[in-house]
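Example (one chain per record):
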Amino acid sequence: MELILEKYKPNQRDTWSWHMAKIPDVPEIVWMAQDQFGSEVDTVFKTDPWCYSKNVTLAVVEQSYDTHKCQLIVARNKLDSSLMAYSWLTRNHYMPYAHDECAEAAFAHIDLKLPLRTRITLMAQILQQWILWCQKIG
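Predicted structure:
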């Protein structure tokens, strides 16, 4: 899988950069989730932006103190700093058929207004970040 994703590695030509989410990122993360993806889940359960904001904030604080607990990263446009994508990966989950720990992808949200090629590249970079994080934490 890594060889397939190799051509999508972050590079200088990208119009965005990735970094660990920080508290100032929380409102935009919540807004993107609610604005672009809320209608997808509204028929299944009632979304609560306050609850999501609390949980995103807790994840940001947790990764600030221990980068091995979760990974919440954001991609921001290099020109205007707008949020283009974010992803959230957590650990301490276990396979139902084994005793091995696994990571769980909580979210991979990409701005749906972006061109398709950009969204594909961002998703490939998210997958790369997940693989690297899992390799790092063991």
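Caption: The beta strands are 16-20, 70-77, 83-94, 101-110.
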